[in-house]
Amino acid sequence: MLYKTEGIVLGSSRYSDRYSIVKIFTRNFGTASYLLPISHSKKAKIKTSLFFPLSVLNLEVEHIPLRDVHKLKDAERQFPLYNVCNNMTKVSLAFFLSEFLLRVLRESDNNELTYDFVKNSVEMLEAADKGLANFHIAFIIGLTRFTGIYPNWDNVHNQGYFDLLNGEFRGNVPSHSHYLNRQYSAYLANLNRINYGNMHLFRLSRENRNVILDYLIEYYRLHLYDFPKLKSLEVLRDMV
């Protein structure tokens, strides 16, 4: 049966000489795989150039429950990503965030709410002209609201250590090794207020930003099943 939906491109891989498989986070079906014909012809009905990471597309799809790979019948760009495709910092963010989402969204429910957050984030990334170095931090923290792992920020400024395993601040050192020391717990406590509108106000060194990012990824890895190493992470470190 054919459906019209919209979706955000998360990644693609070669399936055969004639087809690729694209992973798309759709508004109606969550994350799904679609068969994309490989063609460089100007007459191709569906152009492969549409499927840049984080592109937002209007789609017509054949979607059959329990099928692993579905068919794309039509696709068109909902809005252009001029800056995301040409600014190298934004390019690296797009590749990192799309790979990150590919690992996270299979665990997500409330698809429409999650979809709206991700789509808004793509629009904000395209428009942003300052604070880009902190964009992925704001995104990752914001996404916890939709994945069921939102930390407990109660009494955040009165506690010394952030417990990654239990997602809360506490005054004493946890009995396990998955926690932030006082310095980075204080950084994280301040970051609970970060969003796309104020991210440029948070002054973090590259070293501190990368340490916080590593802890945030560890937090997701502790709470979501089968979270592998992210290939795009090292490229991102060199760009922001």
Low-pLDDT segments, ≥5 res: none
Helix content: 25-40%
The number of helical segments is 7
Order of strands, widest sheet: 1-2-3-5-4
Helix vs. strand class: alpha+beta
What is the total number of structural domains? 2
The major pleated sheet works out as: 5 strands, mixed, barrel
Rg: 19 Å
Q: Sketch the topology as an H/E string, one letter per element.
A: EEEEEHHHHEEEHHH
Strand content: 15-25%
Oligomer: single chain
For the terminal residues, how far apart are their CA atoms? 44 Å
Count of extended strands: 8
Shape: elongated
Task: Give keywords.
2 domains; 5-stranded mixed β-barrel; OB fold (Dihydrolipoamide Acetyltransferase, E2P); 7 helices; 3-stranded antiparallel β-sheet; 240 residues; alpha+beta
